[in-house]
Structure formats: C-alpha cells, structure tokens
Amino acid sequence: MNNEKLFLGARKRVRETDAIIIGGGATGAGLARDLSRRGFECVLFERGDLATGATGRNHGRRHRGARYAVTDQVSAEECVKENSILRKIARHCVEETDGLFITLPEDDLEYQKNFIVACRAAGISAEALDPEFAKRLEPSANQTLIGAVKVPDGVVDPFRLTVANMLDAVSHGALCHTYCEVTGILVENAVATGVRVRDNLSREEYEVRAKVVINASGIWGGRVGAMAGVEVKMFPTRGSLLILGHRLNRLVINRCRKPADADILVPGDTVCLIGTTSIPIKFEEIDTTVSDREEVDILIREGALLCPEIETARKIRCYCGSRPLIADENDKTGRSTSRHIVLLDHETRDGLKGFVTISGGKLITYRLMAEMTTDLVCRKLGKNVPCDTHSVPLPGSHEPPDKILRKIAPLPPTIKAAIVHRHGDMATDIAAEGASATSLVCECELVSAAEVEHAVDTLAVRNMTDLRRRVRVGMGPCQGELCMSRAVGILADKGVCPPSGCPGELASFLVERWKGIHPLTWGETLRESEFIMWLYQGVCGIGPSDLEPGRVPGEAPGEAASTETPPGAPPG
Amino acid sequence: MRFDAVVIGGGLAGHAAAISLSEAGKSCVLISAGQSAMHFSSGSMDFLHTLPDGSPVLFPEKSLDALTAAAPAHPYSVAGKERTLAMALRAEKAFARWGLRTEGSLAAGNHLRLSPMGKFIPTWLSFEDSVTVPVKDGKAVFPWKKVAILSVRDFLDFSPEIAASGPRALGAETVIVFFTLPALETLRANPSEFRSINIARILDKPEHKPRLAEAVREAAKGVDAVFMPAVLCLNRENLLDELKTRARKPVKLISTMTPSLLGARLARKLSRIFLKNGGVLMPKDEVLGFEARETADGVEIANVRTRNHGDIAISGKDYVLATGSFFGRGLVSDRNGAREAVFDLDLAEPPGPRENWSSPDFFAPQPSSTFGVRVDASFGTYMKGKPVKNLKAAGLVIGGFDPVREGCGAGVSLVSALAAADAIAKGE
C-alpha cells in the first residue's frame, strides 16, 4: 500500500450519508475507518479537535491487560488480544517498554501470587523476578521493593493512533468534520434520521441525514443520548495525571495491588507521567473539570512510592479526563466498575431505530469497539462485509522504522528519527529538502518547520493546540517556551490565522497550558512559569484582550452551557 | 577578601548598584551567577505601565499617588514618591553618563516599543536604535507612512509578518523583505544554533558589511524606514549608523524572541563599565552561605562564602542583595513554602498556603509574582523581624509588586539599586 496524499482537512458537506459518527476520539475514528473500509459512506462530527476527550486525556498512553488481570478477567483478555493486533497494525503509535509490577513492604505479597496466576489465565506472560534483579533492571523503582513481576507492556500514543485511523477512513471516503458540533438528533416516528450540526468555526448550522446515527461521544454520551430522547447513564469520574519533565523510568512501573490512586508510572516520548486519581464528578462538570492541588499531592505522594525521584523531579503539567464509564449505581468509587465495552442498540433497548451508542472499554480496545459497532451497522443495513481492521496496517505503520529511515533523504539523524517516530512511513510525505527540513521549531521534541508545515497542510490543524496534538510542539520539557512563538509564525505564514490574530492564538494556548501548570506552581515549575510570563506577557505583550471574547479557540469549544439537567447525573 | 561593598546578583539591579557604588569611590565586588533577566528582556526599560486595577499609565509620575493608594507595599510606595522620582532621574542621567544611548524620560511620559508580536507596549527608556513610537494626546503616533521589515531568511525567532501587524494597525504600509548570507546558511545548518546572538556574531563581522548594507539599501527603496529584527549590533553598535548612512533612511531594531540581543548587549556594557570603574567581578559564582552577628539594634552580615571561593570568605562593610525573583533563584520554593534564598530574609507578605500562590486564570494577577523580601524606605532588609543594618535589597528579590503586569520591573530595579547605593554612600 502506498500513501498517496492523505488529507484530513477537507470540509466537504453532504446532505445524506449511510452513517453519522458523533465523537472524534479513538473509537469514533476507528469506527470511521471500519465503516468506510466495509463500504459505508460516513461522516464523523467532532465539536473540537480529534482526541480531545478521554482518548487524549485519560490514561493517555499505555497499556496491556495485566492491570486488570485480577479484578477483571474479561477486560484483561480483550486487552491482550487487542494489544497484539495494535503491535501489528499501529506500530508507529506503540512503543514496547515492558512493565514491572512491584510489591512494597506495606503491600501483601499474596496479591503478587494471585496476580501471576490471573495474568497467565488471561494469556499474559508474567514472570516473578528476584527483587534484587528487579532493582537493577529498573533502578528508578522504589528500592525497598520486596517483590516484582515483569509483564509485556507498551505505551500507546493516542493522538497518533486517532489521526492514523482517521487518515485511513478519509482515504476510503469518510468525511472528517472537526469543530462541528452535533446540536440535535433528528427523530421522526421513532427513527433517528440524522443530526443537526453547528460548524463551530463558521457558526453555520445545517442538517445531515443518515441511515444510522452512532453515539461515540464517550462521557458526553449521556448528553447525546438525551438529544435522541433516550437515557444513557454515564458515571463520570475524573482521572488526573501528572507529567514529569523527563523520562525517569524505562519500564512502565505499576504497584502490584488492587488498582488505586497514582499506581502507574508510564514513560512516553521525552517525558513520563504518573496517574491516576479517581474522583466522582457531576455530569455538569465534565467540560470544565480540572485537577486540584489535593490530587496533585496524592499523585506525588503515591507516585514517590513507585519511584522516589518523583518527589524532586520537575513537574511540568497535570491534566485530567473523565472516564467514559456507564454508571454502576452499586459502586460509587468508580474503581471496581467493570470497564467492559457497552454497545447499546437503542432499537431493541428503547424502541428508537437507527440510533446506536458505543461506550465503555478502554483506549486499547477502541478497534474492537469499532468492529462490534460496525458489525451491528452491517446487520441493520443488511450488508455482509467482513472486518479487516485487525489485519491491515494503519497509515504510517506499513513499514518498519529501519526501512523508512533508509528512504528519507539526508537529514540530521536526530530529526529523521523523530519524524519517523511520530509519523511512521508517512514521514516520507514531510519535505526533506530546503531550509524548513532542518530548522527546528521545537528543540525538546525535535520538531522541524517542515513537520509543522506538513501537519498544517494535511492534518486539519486549526490552531496551536491542534498542532500540539499532531506533532508534540509544546508538549516536551519546555512546554512551549521557545516553540510556541516559532510555531505561531508558521501558522501565520500558512494562513491558518492572520498575523494580527497570532497574539490571540498564543493567548489561548497560554490559557490552555496554564490550567495544567497552575496547581504545580512551586519549585522549578514556578520558575518556568515566571519565565513564560516575562516572555509572553512582558516582552511580547500578550494580554487578556487578545482572547476572542467568549471562546478559547485552542479549546474544544465548550458550548457546555446546556442548562437543562443532564441525564445520567449521579443522584445527589 | 575585604571590600567596601559586596553586591550579590549580576542583573540590571546588581549592575546598577555596583556601578553606582564604584562611582561613589567604594571598592566593590559583584558576584554574578551568569545570565540574568536582561538576557530574556525586551531591551527596553519600563517604569510603570499599568496600575494594579488594570488601568493603563501614560505618565508614570502622575500615577505614583494612585499606585501608593492601591499598593502601599509596592517598592515605589515604600520608598516614597520623592525618592522614587529622584532615583529615576538619577538613572536617566547615569545611562547618559555611561554612554548607553537611550531615549525616553519620565518627564516625557511613556513611549511605546514594538514587540516581536506586533504589539506596542508602553515603556520608559529604549535604546535609540530600537523601534519606538511616541504617544501624543493619549494616541500612538507612528512616525512613518511606509516601512520595510528586513528579516533573515528562515530565522524562526522573529516573524516579520506578525511584527508588521503592529505598524499596520497604526495605518502604516509594510513591506517584508528577506536576506541571507552564505555564512548564515552554514550557521542555520545546525538546527538549534540559528539564534539572535549567534546571527549577530556573523552579521557584525566587517567582511559581511557590504552585502548587509546592500540588502538594507535595497529594502529602503520606496519606504520611510527599515526595521530589522535585533540580530546585529551586538558588538558593533555603530554598524547601524553605517547602514543608516548608506540607506539614507532610519534603520531600527525590533526585539526578537529569546535570547534578547538588546538585553545581552546592555548586560555586557554594564559589566564593562563596572570593570572600568575598578570593580571586581566574580562571574559564574554563587553565594552559598554567610555569617551574621547580632547587634544591639539588629543584625549585621559579617561575610559571605561562595561556591568558587570555598573557604575564603568575602566580607564587606555593606551588602546589596540583587538576586532576582524565582527565575533568578533569588527566591526559592517547594511544596511547603517560599523563602529568600541566601539569607532567608523576611518577606514582604508571608506566602501563605500554596493554593493561594497562583490563580487558575493565566492573565489574572498571580500572587507568587509579588513574593519577595520586605524593605524599608532606603531598601534596608529584615531578618526574623530585626533590621539587617548593612544589607539592602534591589530589584526583583523585593516583594510587593508585579513586574510583568504592572510593567515596572526595570524601574523598580533601577530605583532600588540607586537608592540602595545612595544610602550606602551616605552611610545611612
């Protein structure tokens, strides 16, 4: 397969289609891919950018099923199976790291025994290590550990994964409409016949008809369900994560105990992150919820038990997402909730034809969720085409990195490695000649001007925050100090925003970044934030008046102000 | 080692204090950790551009009473209007005496500088060779109808398009032109080296002057002035005069993103002036500890020890602490609190619990920005409630003000430094 010019940014409108997908997370993008590959026309609507919900925010990057082996055998088996598929179809989005489950003196070693048995039953090879050996294998792990189990583990980049799925979908005729918000479901005689959409960039509103409307909007599923008049009960819990300024660990380090707060430390790209917490929140808060200082303290305190260096390492940012769990009223912690895939056919459940909800699951099982949903669409629309998303590699993953590296014209080896790491075989689409190929925009993540230009040209970048998701500009240790001004210059040159709008772009980006920085303002993080303020507010003169009134463009436009009581809000 | 005065911190405040003390005939040592806020600055010096309530300031002199009413803990308020204005005037004169060619004065009110993001920002003193715009009757008066922005091709730390949006907003026409040189292409091939200071090292070389002058002359055709990013004239300040003569049009610099050439140039010049005055510079050194003794009416610093000088104590009759805020490491913090780094001096306000240090709104006042040490009217300091008889504070290590939002960082640095030096010289 070759990658002829793939392009995400088209905004071609249609009046009708086979299937409408609401939500541009991994599941929605995976669905667009599966549906389009099986010959369905489909349109995906996402109110903000791709991967802005739980996909990019909640346990962003990882993992194998071992974590669930003891508590949730079904999920563990699904994870194992999907993981081996991802290694084949999405290798440029996956990094194999292996994982270590450590037992500390205060933990029960019995759990480790059960854990190994459960892993093996789920098909996960789990190997108990001699504690002394484990300490040498992962020197960053708490050296008081009394037990350690090594399991195969990996890290997934959710942004790359979602974009790759969407690119494949688009090349098979799917339409990807980011910044288009579904504001209503058209229902006629107990049949969902389409959706009402508002283009959040142009503010135009229009309707699109479809044979099937699929609600793949994660935690927002309750709200979308309500638009169709059906009840989808979501139980939002906030999960916060903390990003540390460099890679402390080689292996994913987990605590070998029942899943709890801050018990997993995941390395990824140039940083690592510790997560997560689990705090039940009200449904009204899902658009606005942010990590608080108490959670930060929990993450640092518990994280330091996994890896003591967390206490002193520079914290660069914390962020949170809402797990898209379908509520289990019997459990209020959100922890023991089974995270099984939930596919609701509202025709059989509620008597509403043409409306389907897919929810639950995990990032790693996005493909299976898409396959199950597409199978249901096939049955509904009387089409019998087998799924092939488990065997056909995604754009970017057709060839192994060493082969791609040989194909790229002479570039400095570090830049070459970085673009292949981020784009796989699509790296060959990035200009390798001319000054932009070797001019660095982001020195932390080694992002060249050519890579930024490529993202702007082909990957539907509408603002600085989208760019961050595509190429990691501003995501590395410096959090954008140097690169945000360079990147915004390229956005202006490319016409994404007018030159006079650049201060506004930067203002939005700064506001968005600050949400994750301000709970961490002490020590080195405070120093860095002081520097950012000097530079951007002081030297550049960026101020609040640069923000477009009422909306932060770098954000998923939070038209969250739906005032009616949302369905699925937990009682009380 | 014994000196009359020991100045700790080599930023704008430390240098200004050290030079003033050396001018007053004091033997003076300046202990400097290295780069300072000057290297990340705009190159202009602001005095006050916004009051704490957000209202803009055109004439800082006239706004000092309002500032004192709104922010009694502000260093200008603590020093008092008279002393503040006297020291500001003294700074203006000192700059002229030191050969720093600046324009602007408190008497004339704030003028505007052009930021790399195309914003006009009120400020007090700017270098003559940078783009400035006067304010008349509260309005910016852009002096030219049509300007060319001549930038270095593929230089990412300055976007001529974005910078041009400023003059355009004031009704001027702009033309954007790029130039390059083989030597710049060679520099650019190393992806992380294409920065303002490195470019200046090339452009300042005499052998490149003909090509540079030609590019400026071409750009000047049909326009009233040529603007360039501040990537030249680091060591050869008269280079711009020469280009101006050739082009027969004004040629001016706009500050770029970091590092700041104008700021680095200022830092370098101040160091030279201090050394010329016979001062002792301890570069890349850091104070690690000190000895103090209690006196009847306070505390006295006996000596300090530095990293590079190990056991050899450095003692002075007087000390000036000009170590900066958090970024300069004059203040340090952890999850439990914040303190002054060298002497653990009393702070202007106790920092309180961490949840109150910052606001979730990026553009709202950030309380941590106002953290700093408590001073008296002549910038004397306190330790555990007792005055430190021979230690003054200068610059951003002082608490009670927000240098970025109020636009007063350079002003506070110069006023406090000169006031501290003045008090020491007079034996106050």
Care to describe what's here?
The complex is a heterodimer of chains A (572) and B (428). Chain A is α+β, with helices and mostly antiparallel strands and 572 residues long. Chain A has helices spanning 26-37, 54-57, 73-89, 109-121, 131-137, 158-171, 221-227, 293-306, 346-350, 366-381, 401-407, 413-423, 449-458, 464-471, 483-493, 502-517, 523-539, and strands spanning 16-22, 42-45, 94-96, 99-103, 127-129, 147-151, 154-156, 175-177, 180-188, 191-199, 205-215, 237-244, 252-255, 264-268, 271-275, 279-280, 315-323, 341-345, 355-360, 440-442, 447-448. The N and C termini of chain A lie far apart (54 Å). Chain B is an alpha/beta fold and 428 residues long. Helices cover 29% and strands 23% of the residues of chain B. Chain B has helices spanning 12-23, 60-70, 75-79, 81-97, 160-169, 182-188, 196-203, 209-220, 238-247, 261-276, 409-425, and strands spanning 2-8, 28-31, 102-103, 111-114, 120-123, 126-127, 132-133, 135-136, 139-140, 146-152, 173-179, 225-229, 251-254, 280-282, 287-295, 298-306, 315-321, 331-334, 337-340, 380-383, 386-393. In chain B, helix 1 runs parallel beside helix 11, helix 4 packs across helix 11 and helix 8 packs across helix 9. At the A-B interface, helix 8, helix 15, helix 16 and helix 17 of A face helix 5 and strand 18 of B.
Largest interface: A-B, 57 and 58 residues
The gyration radius over C-alpha positions of chain B equals: 22 Å
In total, how many domains does the architecture of chain A comprise? 3
**Assembly of the depicted chains:** heterodimer
How many strands appear in the DSSP assignment of chain B?
21
Average pLDDT of chain B? 96
Helix content of chain B: 25-40%
Coarse structural class of chain A: alpha+beta
Q: Quick one: how many beta strands of chain A? A: 21
Helix run count of chain B: 11
Order of strands in the sheet with most strands of chain B: 14-2-1-17-21-20
Strand content of chain A: 15-25%
Q: Detail the poorly predicted runs of chain A.
A: 550-572
CATH class of the largest domain in chain A: Alpha Beta
The second-level CATH architecture of the largest domain in chain A is 3-Layer(bba) Sandwich
Which whole number gives the mean pLDDT of chain A? Answer: 87
Shape of chain A from CA axes?
Answer: globular
Anisotropy-based shape of chain B:
globular
Low-confidence residue ranges of chain B: none
